[in-house]
Design brief:
Blueprint lengths: L1 E7 L2 E7 L7 H14 L5 E8 L5 H16 L4 E4 L3 H9 L7 E3 L2 H6 L16
Parallel strand pairs: 2-3, 3-4, 4-5
Antiparallel strand pairs: 1-2
Length: about 130
């Protein structure tokens, strides 16, 4: 699993490459949390999954845990670029109702602008 993290304006963008599974989830989570703790000015995050061809329940669990962490800071975590096999995991578990999923990274980043970033972007409950 390759994890690339950058800032686009006031939005953190995490680009993942490789499987998000029990074998890689600890490293992914550790890298994200290290960056997250070092970037207190960031509230909103886009997770680009375009290069993730496989995800198991451990990967989904990690994304849900990170969504909670981001929401605790008053932000939101949005997903983009989900491939067909990975999307099936979201649909079977109904996690597609928990996350806002957009087609492209640019669209996901743009979806945060023009909003009050001091509050969560929608009314989802954790």
């Amino acid at each position: 699993m390759d994890v690339r993290i950058e800032k686009k304006g006031t939005v953190g963008v995490v680009t993942l490459t490789g499987p998000l599974s029990a074998l890689s989830v600890d490293s992914f989570r550790d890298q994200f949390l290290q960056w997250w703790d070092a970037a207190p000015e960031i509230r909103n995050v886009v997770m680009d999954l375009a290069n993730v061809e496989f995800m198991d329940s451990s990967g989904l669990g990690a994304l849900i845990a990170l969504l909670k962490r981001v929401a605790d800071r008053g932000g939101d975590l949005r997903l983009c670029g989900i491939q067909k096999k990975v999307r099936l995991v979201f649909e079977i578990t109904r996690a597609h109702r928990v996350f806002e999923i957009l087609d492209t990274q640019d669209g996901a980043v743009a979806s945060f602008y023009g909003m009050d970033q001091a509050r969560p972007c929608d009314g989802r409950k954790m």
